[in-house]
Amino acid sequence: MVIDSNGQFRLMQRSDPVPGPGEVLLRIRAAGLNAADLQQARGDYPAPPGWPADVPGLEVAGAVEAIGGAVSGVGVGDRVMALVGGGGHAERITVPAELLLPVPPALSWVEAAGFPEAFSIAWESLVELAEVRAGDRVLVTGAAGGAGTAMVQVAAQSGAHTVASVRRTELHERMRALAPDGTRLDVVTPGEEAKHGPYDVIVELVGGPDCLNRVELLRRRGRIVIVGVQAGATVPLRMFDLMLARGRLIGTTIRGRAPAEKAVLAATIRESVVPLLARERLRIPVDTTFPLGDHAHAYARLGGPGKFGKVILVADE
Ligand SMILES: NC(=O)c1ccc[n+]([C@@H]2O[C@H](COP(=O)([O-])OP(=O)(O)OC[C@H]3O[C@@H](n4cnc5c(N)ncnc54)[C@H](OP(=O)(O)O)[C@@H]3O)[C@@H](O)[C@H]2O)c1
User: Fold this and answer.
1) What atom of ligand 1 comes closest to residue 208's alpha carbon?
2) What stretch of H or E contains 238?
3) Residue 268 resides in a domain
């Protein structure tokens, strides 16, 4: 898949990439779609250096097909998944071996393709940045999407009392069913967020003109982690409320990070999150799948309303 000079997605035939030192070649079996793919097509979010500049796709699952020099611990045929800087919506990709995550045996390619981006940002936001603790009350806005369904599960797994804000009530039952056994999850509409607070941690996945009014919902020493701002990125802030709460605003993005930083994050996900996935303590809800050739419908679904979980492209056999 290529983003052409008019910002349109097109299928093109290109020669297979060749793995360099430290890299492997993957035969991609499925790839996740992300809002960043649409932003890149609009010209707002270029690929970071070192990744294909015009091929979208930030997360892949597939089998190792060839191995470059100076790679150990990986074999041809291994089932792996990875968060990549671009180039995932393709049949093949070269990936630094240090970014690879093993796919647990029971996990399908489709589910694996929906794991790396959502659970990397969820773990980093909640565990590393917000330092969520058992007993914390956590609010996740825009919770029914790919990132939100991961955030809610990571918060619940951390022992937090989690509140998922989902504006479509028809999705509330599916969201409730995501709560791992023995965890506390309330599903609310945006208008009900205040009465379920105050919160130790708020994960902002929506943005928009009023989103930082939520500082008034923070407990003392509360944290707001800003992850997604598609509904608006410039907002007023009641600074006095933030001061009274002695609160913290934390922003994060993953894509533009240096390779070494991405490798550190991948190691954390490999050690701390993949084992939960393997024990079926985490699930990857898949909204819809599309063959690579039906990319137009896939990207339309990604940008459309009412999704629950991830949209996934599936490669031809
Ligand atoms: N910082 C990073 O590194 C990073 C990583 C991953 C994702 N993100 C960002 O995080 C955001 C969420 O990602 P995602 O993959 O979960 O996207 P997604 O699958 O498209 O889900 C977005 C969710 O937000 C809801 N929503 C949109 N506008 C809303 C509004 N005005 N009020 C209430 N809910 C609203 C949608 O509900 P409807 O169906 O009702 O529209 C949907 O459930 C995106 O902006 C993405 O770019 C950032």
Assistant:
1) 31
2) none
3) no
Ligand 1 atom closest to the CA of 307, numbered from 1: 39
Q: What is the dihedral of CA 302, 308, 313, 317, to 10 degrees?
A: -160
- Band of pLDDT at residue 136, cut at 50, 70 and 90: very high
CA distance 284 to 149: 8
Number of structural domains in the chain: 2
Length of the chain: 317
CA 102 – ligand 1 centroid, Å: 27
Is residue 258 in a domain?
no
Residues framing ligand 1 (Cβ under 6 A):
34-36, 117, 121, 142, 144-148, 167-168, 190, 205-206, 208, 227-228, 230-231, 252-254, 305-307
- Domain residue limits at 95: 2-115+277-314
Q: Over the stretch 43-62, which tens digit does the pLDDT of each residue have?
A: 989 999 999 999 999 999 99
Question: Which CATH number goes with the domain that contains 137?
Answer: 3.40.50.720
Q: Cis peptide leading into 198, omega within 30 of 0?
A: yes
Residues 132 and 247 in one domain: yes
* Ligand 1 atom nearest to CA at 120: 5
- Which residue's CA is the nearest one to ligand 1's atom 29? 206
Pick the last residue of a domain from 251, 269, 304. 251
Residue 182, pLDDT score: 83
